Amino acid sequence: MSMTETNPNFATTTPSEEAESHHDEAISRKGLAMLYAVLAAVVVAWGSAIFAYGIPGLYIPALCMVPVMYLILVIIAKG
Fold first, then answer.
1. Residue 58 domain-assigned?
2. Predicted structure pTM score
3. b/e map of 10-35 (b: 16 or more CB within 10 Å)?
4. Which of 27, 37, 57, 65 is disulfide-compatible with 49, CB 3.0–4.6 A?
5. pLDDT tens across 5-55, in order?
6. Which structural domain range is residue 49 located in?
7. Cβ neighbours of residue 74 under 8 Å, at least 6 residues apart?
């Protein structure tokens, strides 16, 4: 088969169809950027707590996250 021949099994889409298919994404680019910004803010805040308070700044936020993560796991398990 040469490059000029067409494959009947190959589905072609128009640019408008491709643009519509991007709406099926689970999270948008803007939402993903916001997620990364929040994650970066949490990491910076935790790093600042470690810098300011030393070892308690390291383990107290981690200790406070235990019930939060437990709740998140329960919510995920319930579906």
1. yes
2. 0.57
3. eeeeeeeeeeeeeeeeeeeeeeeeee
4. 57
5. 666 665 566 666 555 555 667 889 999 999 999 999 999 999 999 999 999
6. 27-78
7. none
